[in-house]
Amino acid sequence: MLRKTIRFIDNSIDRIVILVSLLFFFICLYAMYDAIMVYYNANDNSTLKYKPQGVEDAEILRELSKDAVAWISVDNTTIDYPVMQGKDNSEYLNKDPYGAYSLSGSIFLDSRCDGRFEDDYSLLYGHHMDYGAMFGALDEYIKPDYFDAHKIGSLITVEGRKYNITFFAAVKVQATEKVVFDLANSSNSKLLKYLENNAAIFQQPKDGAAHLIALSTCQSAENNERMVVVGVLNE
Fold it and tell me: Which of 1, 82, 116, 235 is most exposed, with minimal Cβ within 10 Å?
């Protein structure tokens, strides 16, 4: 009787070990699948067919989505994406330009900004993804040599306006920094002063600062620090 009891216990333990091992295996398998899908979505080039080649075909963005407001490109970087604008700043955090769920989200314009980029200050957000995808490349702007070699970009709005972008500052800030993120209570003059005093890299803009654009991404999931690169928009 004792042997049977011991054998039953041993078999039960074996079954539990097998079940736990299978559960762990499937969890690992799902984690791998999830990581692959995040990487795939972050590096999805299918939206490139909606990229305007100039102001004459800017309306091609409307075929992508009614929420597409522009296309942004930064020379010699991986930043080459449609710019979305949702009803609030949560909508495109985990939604791709097609409207499908995606952990890598989209590049999007702050919902408080003018979608035609006629504001004095326009603020864009993008997730920090590996291999420079989305706004992951912004990390490199803290390096002076990289900054100087990647300070030119362009933006074409869905209405057919083309802007040249010249970046002049790179700064790490907290997400609570009002001068950068509180659009209603900030101004370009306040932002310029803040950048001059706090930015890791600051080059006095040569073309004035009447029309600014900022690109922002998170540094990690563990803190509220943001990497922000700021430039001048010239139509």
Answer: 1
